[in-house]
Every structure is written in structure tokens, then in C-alpha cells.
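Is this the right way to post C-alpha cells for a design question? Let me know if I should format differently. Anyway, here goes:
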């Protein structure tokens, strides 16, 4: 994908001067879309800890 030159670069200040840098903790498709646009990004493979209550475990045991 070709990127167009930024003709308004001299008008940008603060956080708008540079491209964003992103740490993605989610869907790989989002990371890939950012990378395809030339964004500095990193994909972090993380899965939240799964905790199941004892009550839910007992109910699942009954049904399964």
C-alpha cells in the first residue's frame, strides 16, 4: 500500500507530529491492519487468567 506524503507536517504539533506507536493486546487482525499502514506496533500474546467459581464448576459437572 503506497503512503501519500504528509503535506501538513509543518502544522502538526505535540502527539500529532509522529505516527502512533501501539502495543496491541487483542485481535491479531487489528495489529496486522496497523502494521500494514506503517504504524510502529507490537503484538502481545496474552490471555487473561481464567477463574471459575466452584458453583459453576459443579453445575457444569452435572450437565456434562
Amino acid at each position: 500500500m503506497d503512503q501519500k506524503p504528509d503535506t501538513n507536517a509543518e502544522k502538526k504539533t505535540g502527539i500529532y507530529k509522529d505516527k502512533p506507536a501501539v502495543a496491541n493486546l487483542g485481535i491479531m487482525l487489528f495489529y496486522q491492519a496497523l502494521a500494514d499502514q506503517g504504524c510502529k506496533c507490537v503484538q502481545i500474546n496474552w490471555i487473561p487468567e481464567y477463574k471459575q467459581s466452584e458453583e459453576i464448576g459443579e453445575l457444569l459437572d452435572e450437565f456434562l
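Format looks fine. Someone answered above. Worth noting: The chain has a mean pLDDT of 84. The first strand starts at residue 21 and ends at 24.
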